[in-house]
Amino acid sequence: MHALDLQQTIGNSVTEHPELVKVYMDHQVDFCCGGDRTVSEALEKDGADLEAVLREAEEAMAAAGTGAAAGPGVVLLSDLTSGELVDRIVGRHHAFLKRELPVLRELLSTILKVHGHRHEELYEIHKVFRELALELESHLVKEEEELFPKLASGGKECGELIRELEREHDGAGEALHRLTELTDHFRVPADGCRTYGIAYGKLQELVADMYLHVHAENNVLFPRFH
Ligand SMILES: [Fe+2]
Ligand SMILES: [Fe+2]
């Protein structure tokens, strides 16, 4: 049985079941900013189809094996050593960004050129994305070249650097939220072409991956060194 607990906070539900990010995003349920609402409040307020969310959540949790009967092979971030966590963050999330940011940059420039005259929001999306990508580039360097090596040698006196990185996470979170709004939750307009669909699909993946990435750092790795 992999039932979604409606009484827990929506923030907690994603912490325990990262696979729910996609389900919430598909149903336009805000799990970031409204993180301390209960799942049931959030679904109601954001006007989600309760039955569909429950069904999809159950399927996602069963596929990920993180429901009540979590099987072997399921990795809980809190069980990892800090070294393993860092390897996972760099190997998955940083690699994802290094691969996808340049691709998205091209895609967003392309659709701006083709559709910008009819979809003015593309100018703002282009700008917000460019600024975010620029920030993230130096953020990753700061983590990989400064913080992570320090953590590997005990993590003494990292408090200030960690706080700075957390502030950068907040800034990135705002940009991601803004992109979600500007794209109307990644809804491709009727006159959008295939590239438009690919660009919005990739933007949505970026938001989902960033959520898991920041969660692993802010809530699991960084508190060990505060
Ligand atoms: Fe990171
Ligand atoms: Fe980070």
From TrEMBL:
Sequence ranges assigned to domain Hemerythrin-like in this UniProt record: 89-224
Domain of life (superkingdom): Bacteria
InterPro entries: Hemerythrin-like, RIC_family
Designated name of the protein: Iron-sulfur cluster repair di-iron protein
Keyword Coiled coil assigned: no
Source species of the chain: Anaerotalea alkaliphila
Pfam (any one): ScdA_N
Keyword Metal-binding among UniProt keywords: yes
A GO cellular-component term linked to this record: cytoplasm
Keyword terms: Cytoplasm, Iron, Metal-binding
NCBIfam families: FeS_repair_RIC
Annotated compartments: Cytoplasm
